[in-house]
Design brief:
Elements (H helix, E strand, L loop, with lengths): L1 H44 L7 H32 L32
Helix pairs in contact: 1-2
Length: about 120
């Protein structure tokens, strides 16, 4: 019974991690779309590129923050996967997403910069 409770708790955490990963990626898509629309709107209005530039910088900074959040959550996912091997009831348990797309805790860091 306790083993099932532990496995269910781990499954719930895994589902939430995947949900958060997906929502961050959706937010990244939406921010990129916002950037595109802001640039297109400025061009359509025929105003100087300096017009609205501060707003564009803020959106770019938000995008960069989401990229960092994405990396942090991916790293947390990898650490949770590794940690599961130290929890009785989870050792040698394969969770969905394992073996293919979860980086090792020592991998997955990239110095990404947004240029606006």
């Amino acid at each position: 019974m306790r083993r099932q409770m532990i496995q269910q708790a781990a499954y719930d955490v895994g589902l939430q991690v995947r949900l958060v990963e997906d929502k961050i990626e959706t937010a990244l898509e939406e921010l990129a779309e916002l950037q595109k629309l802001m640039i297109r709107a400025r061009a359509t209005a025929g105003v100087a590129t300096a017009t609205g530039h501060q707003a564009l910088e803020q959106v770019a900074e938000s995008l960069q923050g989401m990229v960092a959040a994405r990396g942090n959550v991916a790293m947390a996912h990898a650490i949770l996967k590794e940690t599961a091997q130290h929890v009785p009831g989870l050792r040698d348990t394969v969770m969905f997403g394992d073996e293919s797309d979860t980086p090792k805790p020592t991998e997955g860091h990239a110095d990404l910069r947004i240029v606006a």
